[in-house]
Amino acid sequence: MFRPLLPVLLMLAPLLASCGDNAPSEIAVSEVWARASVTKTGAAYATIENRGGADDTLVEVLSPVAERVEIHYMTMDGMVMKMRKLDALPVKAGESVALAPGGKHIMLIGLHGPLDEEAPVPLTLVFEKAGKIELTAPVRPAGGTGH
Ligand SMILES: [Cu+2]
What we know:
Blueprint: H1 5-19, E1 27-35, E2 41-50, E3 56-62, E4 66-77, E5 80-86, E6 89-91, E7 96-99, E8 105-111, E9 121-127, E10 131-137, E11 139-140
Parallel strand pairs: 1-11
Antiparallel strand pairs: 1-2, 2-7, 2-8, 3-6, 3-9, 4-5, 4-8, 9-10
Bound molecules: copper (II) ion.
């Protein structure tokens, strides 16, 4: 009766074992916040520091507050500043990358509701090596530089 289970377990064993190889995350995220928004889009910012000895890459950002989350950077197209999508954001060993107004940012597209100071924004940063890092971004008033 139980015999058919055995080959399945044997197949799973290498997969389970490989999960244990992950080193503890050496990615530290600070300065996390989101800009208040009453429109359908919002932006979030953070400083990502790689304290480890190996390069890592931010490959995806998830949030339940928006339909889609993208990593953007700003670029000049003639006299017009434009936002473009980054497929991945490398964070080299020993370096830190700042996502800040006027530069790289996390774009929240298709907000399900306004972003206001009452409701912090849950964010999940997914790194190639460090895996998922769950964050809560406090919402700060709009204004100042940025878009
Ligand atoms: Cu953007």
